[in-house]
Amino acid sequence: QVQLVESGGGLVQAGGSLRLSCAASGSIFSINVMGWYRQAPGKTRELVATITSGRSTNYADSVKGRFTISRDNAKNTVYLQMNSLRPEDTAVYYCYLSMSTNYWGQGTQVTVSS
Length: 114
Known about the structure:
The chain is 0% helix and 55% strand. By secondary structure, it is mostly beta strands.
């Protein structure tokens, strides 16, 4: 049984920063992809950033230069440092783990006020 537990969401003013964390537990393969997706009200879920176990990263164009994804393989934890936040970053952020099956966290709300 794989579980993903997210933390770090909240309310922040535009221009501020937040750091999300996601810890995976259970049977985790050493080779995997972890990342973050987000879903705003009335919109489909979209990729934010992913990182492989070899630390190759991929970002959505909308967050490049503002968000940084990282991971601690020993802790099976992925982080998302979000800087220069904008109101359009407001969404529920979901942690993602891809092995032979895809797993999702429960989501954490990020709200950016203008």
